[in-house]
Design brief:
The structure holds two protein chains of two kinds. In chain A, about 20% of the residues lie in helices and about 45% in strands. By secondary structure, chain A is of the alpha+beta class. Chain A starts with 7 loop residues before the first strand and ends with a strand. Chain B has a two-stranded antiparallel ribbon with strand order 1-2. The chains are: A alpha+beta, B mainly alpha. The complex binds zinc ion (2 copies).
């Protein structure tokens, strides 16, 4: 049986900002995710890559995000039974600040 | 001239608010980041169809007193709850924040006088021309034997720990550059009344009456002018804006209100102001970012 890979996100709209405008999709961690625009998708993808690097995880199962562009975003992510809380900011999709909490 | 609607993101003109809404819905549907971010910040992050957006947009544009409409939009955006992060930090500013302010604002002021000069060059109104000449002088060259605001700004930077050469030789941060690009485009391409509507209401930022207009905070806590928590030169700079910008911004609102009705340009003036407010929001974040970059270096 093949393992079903699916990244869970907490927003119904754009996986990064929850907006429902736009029509941009990108497949990340095996899931086809909805984003309002390519900048949000870049930020989300770079954020996931950073979490995997920091934690040496080979996959991320779920991400929960709160906050916004100007305040920055506080998140938690899980991989199996492992969990991490962190804060990040981005500029045009590039991560400019990242802190494990 | 028929009244038109201006897109607050790309500044193209549409014949009506309905068609402008259709344009925004179309550009958002194509996942254009600029149009989506503007909708998120100014209208709603929940997707609407053209009719839905058009009716929400008309609500935003509705006014009984046009001057008050400008004030309300501005106060809600920067002084509402929660107030803009720069405003919150300015209540008790650090020397890094004041230095960051000095560097980025130097670049802002360079564009500011150019925008004023464009208004002056394009207008035939004697009173507006007079207003701009006085404004350029007080902001950049000095007036009635007093140093200019720009000079006071440099002195604030020096007192906060950066030299005037550092300020004058600095490059603006990306956010400042992006904001200035919009103001430059408006200055070059737009009618003088639109340039005026984009620029001068921004001076409301330092208006003494912000709290009376419903702001949760003023631009800064007035006690910092005298309690010794900031350098004297910073207090002097802040006091200049505090006392002078009040009349500037309110005279400008008077011009906008009168000329926009005379020239049938009310809606355009509102929309270009919305575009400018968004750029100003980003620019204020640049002042914070610059302050953060200076941490441990002053
Ligand atoms: Zn988004
Ligand atoms: Zn547009």
């Amino acid at each position: 049986m093949r393992e079903v890979i699916c990244l869970k996100v907490n927003y119904e709209g754009c996986a990064l900002c929850d907006a429902t405008w736009g029509s941009y999709y990108r497949t990340l961690e095996g899931s086809k995710l909805f984003f309002c625009c390519s900048i949000c998708a870049d930020a989300f993808e770079n954020m996931i890559r950073r979490v995997r690097e920091e934690k040496a995880w080979n996959r991320v199962d779920a991400v929960e995000i709160s906050g916004n562009y100007s305040m920055g975003r506080t998140c938690s992510a899980t991989s199996g039974s492992d969990e991490v809380r962190y804060f990040f900011k981005h500029e045009n999709g590039t991560i400019t600040e990242f802190k494990i909490l | 001239m028929n009244p038109v609607s201006l897109c607050p993101v790309c500044l193209i003109s549409e014949p009506s608010l309905k068609e402008l809404s259709a344009h925004l819905v179309e550009r958002a549907g194509q996942s254009d980041p600029g149009h989506i971010m503007w909708l998120n910040r100014n209208v709603t992050s929940k997707k609407l169809d053209t009719d839905g957006l058009s009716s929400k947009f008309s609500e935003i544009m509705r006014y009984s007193d046009l001057k008050r409409w400008f004030v309300d939009i501005f106060v809600r955006r920067f002084f509402g709850e929660p107030a803009h992060r720069f405003i919150r930090l300015m209540q008790k500013p650090t020397k890094e924040l004041l230095a960051g302010y000095a560097i980025e604002h130097h670049h802002f002021l360079k564009q500011w006088v150019k925008s004023c000069a464009y208004i002056l060059a394009k207008t035939d109104s004697e009173e507006v021309a007079q207003y701009e000449m006085e404004n350029m002088s007080t902001e950049y060259f000095g007036w009635n034997g007093l140093p200019s605001h720009h000079e006071y700004l440099l002195q604030m930077g020096e007192a906060a720990g950066i030299s005037r050469e550092q300020i004058l030789n600095s490059k603006p941060l990306g956010k400042t550059e992006d904001s200035i690009a919009l103001w430059r485009k408006i200055a070059r391409e737009s009618h003088w009344l639109l340039i005026l509507s984009a620029m001068h209401p921004l001076e409301l930022i330092a208006n003494k009456r912000i709290r009376k207009y419903g702001g949760t905070y003023g631009y800064f806590d007035p006690s910092i002018l005298s309690d010794g928590s900031i350098p004297e030169a910073a207090a002097r700079f802040l006091y200049q804006g505090y006392s002078a910008d009040q009349s500037h911004s309110e005279d400008a609102l008077e011009f906008i209100s009168r000329y926009s009705q005379e020239l049938d340009m009310v809606e355009e003036c509102q929309e270009i102001f919305l575009a400018s407010v968004d750029a100003f929001d980003l620019y204020l974040l640049a002042r914070i970012e610059r302050g953060d970059l200076l941490k441990g270096k002053l």
